[in-house]
Amino acid sequence: xxxxxxxxxxxSRVIVGVFEANLLASFAEITANS
Length: 34
What we know:
Elements: H1 2-33
């Protein structure tokens, strides 16, 4: 069970990281265009 928790924790961290990267990329694109 603990292994599963660690795995899902890592997965959620990766998802958050990808989400933040997309957010930063789109924000940079908006500021570059304006």
